[in-house]
Specification:
With about 110 residues, the chain is α+β, with helices and mostly antiparallel strands. The chain has one domain: Winged helix-like DNA-binding domain superfamily/Winged helix DNA-binding domain (Arc Repressor Mutant, subunit A, Orthogonal Bundle). The chain contains 5 helices and 5 strands; from the N terminus they run H-H-E-E-E-H-E-E-H-H. Strands 1-5-4 form a 3-stranded antiparallel sheet. Strands 2-3 form a two-stranded antiparallel ribbon.
C-alpha cells in the first residue's frame, strides 16, 4: 500500500487551501472534520447534505483535502481516519480557517 502524502506545514500554500475549500462538498467534509472531537472515518461522509457521494469521488475529495494540508489521514485497518490540521494551520495562517468556517456557517444558515 502506498504511503499517504501529507505536506509539511511549511509547504502548505494559501492557494491550495482556497482551492480545496472552493468545492461545496469538500468544505462541508472539512467543516465536519474540523468540528469533530475525534477522528472521523471516510464512511461518515457517504452522504453529504442531501447528496450521496460515490466512493471514487469521496476518495478524490479526501485526497485534495489531505494534499492541500487541511487534514491528516491515517489508515486504521481497512478504514481511513481523518483529523483536521487546524492548530497547525492557525499557526501558519492566523485566523484564516476560523474566518472561512464562519463564512461557511453563515452561508449554510442563509441557504436554509
Amino acid at each position: 500500500m502506498r504511503p499517504l502524502f501529507h505536506p509539511s506545514i511549511d509547504d502548505v500554500r494559501l492557494e491550495a487551501i482556497l482551492h480545496a475549500l472552493s468545492d461545496p462538498v469538500r468544505v462541508e467534509i472539512f467543516a465536519n472534520i474540523a468540528g469533530a472531537a475525534c477522528a472521523l472515518g471516510c464512511q461518515a461522509f457517504v452522504t453529504v447534505g442531501d447528496r450521496v457521494i460515490p466512493k471514487s469521488s469521496l476518495s478524490q475529495h479526501f485526497k485534495v483535502l489531505r494534499e492541500s494540508g487541511l487534514i491528516r489521514s491515517e489508515r486504521e485497518g481497512v478504514e481511513m481516519r481523518n483529523v483536521s490540521r487546524c492548530t497547525e494551520l492557525d499557526q501558519r495562517f492566523p485566523g484564516l480557517i476560523a474566518a472561512i468556517m464562519a463564512a461557511h456557517t453563515r452561508e449554510k444558515a442563509a441557504a436554509a
